[in-house]
Amino acid sequence: MKIALAQINTRVGDLKNNSIRIIDFIHRARKAQADLAVFPELSICGYPPEDLVEKKIFVQRNAETLDEILKHTDGIGVLCGFVSPNENPEGHRVFNAAALMENGKIIGIQHKSLLPNYDVFDEMRHFEPAKEKKVFPFRGMNLGIGICEDSWNDKDFWKQRLYHSDPIEELINQGANILINVSASPFHVNKSNLRLNMFKSISQKYHIPCAFVNLVGGNDSLIFDGCSFVLDAEGQLLAQAQSFAEELTVVDIEANRVISNGWTAPDEQQIYEALALGIRDYMSKCGFKKAIIGLSGGIDSALVAAISVEALGKENIIGVSMPSRYSSEHSKDDAKRLATNLGIEYRSIPIESMFNAFLESIHPQFENLPEDITEENIQARLRGNILMALSNKLNAMVLSTGNKSELAVGYCTIYGDMCGGLAVISDVPKTMVYRIARWINREKEIIPRNTIIKPPSAELKPNQTDQDTLPPYDLLDGILEAYIENMREEEEIIQLGYDEKIVKQVLKLVDHNEYKRRQAAPGLRVTTKAFGFGRRLPIAQGWR
Q1: Max Cα-Cα span within the chain
Q2: Residue 287: left (phi > 0), alpha (psi -120 to 50), or beta?
Q3: Residues identified as active-site
Q4: CA-CA distance, 280 to 309, in Å (whole number)?
Q5: What is the fold, at CATH topology level, of the domain defined by 270-468+514-518?
């Protein structure tokens, strides 16, 4: 059997353009003489559709779109994800489904059995689980169809399973002799290796070929990396699609030869490419072409600018320097040098006169009160106002530049440096920010060397550095990873060798600043646990 993995980039809710893309890939697969073209999970409506599936007209139009695609299946099988109505008066109104089609007819429909309800997933909110699982005869093969999570519960691969049943085992028992998984599996660092190893384990266990097709592209905070693949009956890799790009990969199960062990890249490259795709798709799918970035001369804004040029092109980036009385000459020089190296438009808007006017106007309210963080935040908020004014006037999206370490402990200003439409590196720890910057500079200097080697500083008061307030970032990031991503308790983190006083300080800051994170712009997810809808904690609460 010749299978075409149609690794496509969809836009949530854009039924018309999604179907145009699907139909185009069907024609390409037919031209390549494929027997079966396989598309990702919910490819007609995009993933995740969230509460759009609660709209009856949305579900109806999605079904009508499937009927339109059906007209283009002459001479080729097509497996395509869509939202299937639940005709039973009980349960949720819809299923997460995949339709198997050929020659203008629907051969069968498989509903998703395992509905994830953890981290960024909320499928139990929307979908009814499958009532049964079937094997579908197709061109001499018995297809076992799994939809994403359906393949993620093998008792011999996972130490702790989340579900009682294993849909794949049931399909094997029904006589499936090839497994096809249609997925919308979000990216995090090294996720592609995890998926590949998991499906290798399934192939080797049941001695059966596996085809996995994954969505690619960015939808809000989630980035989908693609990396679709086909394994033979011994778990050896026959083909793998590229990462972070659309591709049609055609594989003859019998004729293709074994290739290497699959796509690998350093963590820095994975995150860089993921963020570039995330920016590009978030901007384009929201209707923006140009981006505005506040350039401080620091490492965070430099990294965001460099990735944005990769995503959008240098002609679509505006870098804005907004120096104050505390801005060092080297920071102003570094910001300008970065803009020159990247070839982006550069603007300098000093805030000193605005800062003076603000202080003079509010002085009667502050009389006899000492200067403190209030004056620091005024500067950050003036800069936020400038960026948002430019955004309105130029119809360009502001990209905020705060990293995960700062956002975790609240080292950021609401309505100041947190302003923006997308928080690009809000899931990138500070230590990784430096690593990616050095990776970007691996062949030539793009981010100024001084930006990388100088002590990080917000430059909101004289001689300020981040470490006046925070532990060194290598220490801080280790504690944050243990607490946020690995869900370790305070005592467990201390037992890892961290100072008790510092651990208590950091955890208190993380817990206290949930209110700030709730007001942040959407961020792009690249780790196993990002801030946002994948980490839901109350704001007004007393647990510490």
Answers
A1: 86
A2: left
A3: 41, 112, 148
A4: 10
A5: Rossmann fold (3.40.50)
